[in-house]
Amino acid sequence: MYRVFSGVKPSGDFHLGNYVGAFRQWVADQREHDAIYCVVDLHALTEEIDPAYLREKTYEAAVNLLSVGLDPEICTIFAQSHVPEHPRLTWLLECTATMGELRRMTQFKAKGYGQETVRVGLFTYPVLMAADILLYEADRVPVGDDQRQHLELARELAQRFNSRYGQTFTVPQAAVPTVGARVMDLQHPERKMSKSVDSPLGTIYVADEPAEIERKVKKAVTDTDGEMRYAPEEKQGLANLLELMAVATGETPDEVAARYTRYGDLKQELAAALVELLRPMRERRAELVKDPATVHQVLRAGAARAHEIAAATYERAAAAVGLLGLGC
Ligand code: AMP
Ligand code: TRP
After folding, report:
1. Are 172 and 133 in contact (CB under 8 A)?
2. DSSP state of 8
3. Which of 111, 133, 204, 236 is 20 to 30 A removed from 84 (C-alpha atoms)?
4. Are the CB atoms for 244 and 256 separated by under 8 Å?
5. 103: exposed, middle or buried (C-beta count within 10 Å: 0-12, 13-18, 19+)?
6. Residues of the chain whose pLDDT is less than 70?
């Protein structure tokens, strides 16, 4: 059976980009594969974050994963910091990765390049991510388009380690959706929808009320030529709306474009479709929030299972590089 692994940072609220680019696939994968999903709280420390806020968002991330439809009876959900092998394997992989290849990571370049005060952890973040993936011998990693380069690094590190020290790690494949891999901000369609950017009208949150969703879609930035066609390069705002509609209905963006003539009609129907898409999540969330014992129990059980797998992989890697095990 295939092993699927993915992670989400608990540094803010879940938005439509997370759902469309990642969680949708996570939910589908849990039925057919051995799926393991991680709330990567250690990754959230790479940028300034208030401790109480981090604790709250980590808990909420678990609630959200359950409310998007993950079932802890058939998949594993856990928090990264509960499994000590993540930082342990990161060290072995930091001694495999090079400065040059980390400097080429576009996410680091965008966030911290050239700043003396940037945290070392932000620079080595992709190595921690590689450790997450390699510990679980994941075959497939469902992520949005923004994570492609990090996945490429994880593959490269696995291959380098294997050729240097002997077969140790499974080389993972990225699984990026064909439609909706990059949901754009509704107000700034040239940049991706993101929880780290404060864009109150540009970001639709999974927990948004129907009226808010309608307001945000209605105000979404398009263009002035009024021509209904799918052209992601020239007409980014409209293309984003067409893609979202395509995700909601299962059509292609071109098929959606062929059904409408006016932007206003598309927006109105898209808002209704998104409200329906997110409704079951909002309802499940309301139930779960009342039941912290269940959520904690899911995280405890998840950590136990994850730890079992991660410890075996770590021991193998540590022995391969020549660390003297306690068994001597
Ligand atoms: P993050 O919230 O950055 O931890 O991302 C969690 C998952 O959501 C990752 O697989 C990302 O690739 C995906 N993701 C985040 N933002 C977007 C977006 N705007 N469009 C599509 N996928 C996204
Ligand atoms: N870096 C990813 C993001 O920002 C989150 C992440 C951390 C992840 N570890 C992972 C995703 C392992 C997939 C697999 O979205």
Report:
1. yes
2. E
3. 111
4. no
5. exposed
6. none
Identity of residue 205: Y
Classify residue 110 by burial, with Cβ atoms within 10 Å: 0-12, 13-18, 19+. Answer: exposed
Q: Tokens for 136?
A: 């679980």
Ligand nearest to the CA of 125: 2
C-alpha 119 – ligand 2 centre gap (Å): 18
- For residue 51, count other CB atoms closer than 10 A to its CB: 8
> Which ligand gives the minimal distance to the CA of 37?
2
Ligand 2 proximal residues by C-beta, below 6 Å: 5-9, 40, 43, 129, 132-133, 141, 143, 147, 150
pTM of whole model > 0.70? Answer: yes
Q: How many CA atoms lie less than 13 Å away from 320 in the CB half-sphere?
A: 21
> Which residues are registered as beta bridge partners of 37?
6, 77
Query: What is the distance between the alpha carbons of residues 184 and 4, in angstroms, rounded to a whole number?
Result: 26
What contacts 244, CB < 8 A, 6 or more positions away?
16, 20, 180, 183, 270, 274
Per-residue pLDDT tens for 257-280? 999 999 999 999 999 999 999 999
